[in-house]
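Bumping with the actual sequence this time:
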Amino acid sequence: MVMVKGVDARGMRHCETTALGVLLRHQGLDLSEPMLFGLGSGLSFVYWDSKAMDFPFLGGRVKPFELTRNLATALGLDLTVEETTSARKAWRNVAAPIDAGRPVGLQLDSYHLDYFGTKAHFGGHVVAMYGYDDRNAYLVDTAPQGGAVTTSLASLADARAARGPMTARHRSFTLTAPDDPPSPRDRIIPAIKTCADAFLNPPIANLGHRGIRKAAERVPKWLRRDGDPREGLCRTAVLMEQAGTGGALFRNLYRDFLAESTELINSPHLRTGHTLCTEAAALWTQVAALLASAGESGDARLLTQAASTLHDLARIEHDAMRALSRL
């Protein structure tokens, strides 16, 4: 058995920030999960639908691994990323840092992991690995998935080799902190402004505040979709509140990041942004509840209410990001 000593195997709410927390604490940087999410400019919105999908997808964060890249840039971390199509080389890329006493991050498809409660394909899942023996890998996942967990080496190999949406080629990564890293406090405003600019100026109508408005226009028709739209509505509500988002489609995490930031930075624009994001987080939870109720009852009037709330959210989040962009 090979185990990295001194790993703080603390599971948090979101998978990528959980893995980042494990790697950074081992480097002596212990930041809260909201701070990791915020410094990584993680908040976003995407409305995703296509003929190949049985039901639309509402996303609340940047694409997988972008948060990690953003955080590494913000904190001046050395991010070493390995990708390969060879399963044998992929294992060497993981075993080498662990053998050297360092945990490693992995991007994989959670469907194949032995301990994972919900069997659904998600190729953007991220875990930290800190040990292995002849049969099992020792991982850190989110608190709802068990925190410190084990999965068979065979299941891990399948998860890393999976192909499909959001997957990577056996991606693994390590983080190294500089001897004199920049203060997280000094990186808060640039990270917020990066997030705000992307949200306010999306390149296509499916993203940012424009994406929320697009979702508001489409939601009332969701019960008329082919297949089983009621099941799709219930699934969407669960994804918004429980699937590693921290609740409210990642808005709770960003709200808490802004609250923590207001304790470090005295700015009326920051306080305004925090107040509006707090309001928005509560409304996103209301939207999820309306979608779930519509799925359970088949009552289209609930979707009309959800659409109205989404229109409000587009305005509120636009105003919040506009205030934050003035920092």
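The tokens above came from a reply further down the thread. Residues 45 and 60 are 4 Å apart (CA to CA).
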